[in-house]
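New to this. Help decode both lines:
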Amino acid sequence: MGRLPPWYLVLLAAEGLQRLRELRISAAREAAVTGRQAARARYPLMVALHVALFALPPLEIAACRRQPRGAPGWAAVLAAATGLRWWSISSLGPWWNVRAVVPDGLDPVTAGPYRHIRHPNYVAVALEFLALPMAGGAWLSALGLSALNAVLLWDRVRAEERLLAAVPGYEAAFKGRARFIPGLF
């Protein structure tokens, strides 16, 4: 069994604390609104997957004696993803929450990263699922967790967009805007 690099433990802890902060913010915002939750049945699976993001990479690194390759680059991707996530959260303001509850009376948000794409928060999540394991050299975790995340997000995005389509002005505000990558699809 190999040892985890101390800097990787610090990185995991920093990301974990950020997730706990997000949960606290989300709980307060969810308590203040009423609405419908997208893909409610999949939410426990998403929670389990996010817990696995913090559990599996360290296990792979220790058990397989993985060595980080390109750690500074992956840490930069992780920092950019975190920045995009917080930009998305602040742009959505009181409407953002982790359960994808689409609030009654929602006004479409087209500021911040939403000027360019429909779902910047999910882009950030996908990048985090790749970068956090890869920073420590856990490439199997990165591939497996990213694939599972893609499957769950595909379902969640479709369900969320069905709810958003019922929001007055949403379709007009986002017509022609890509879901994830500007200028693509």
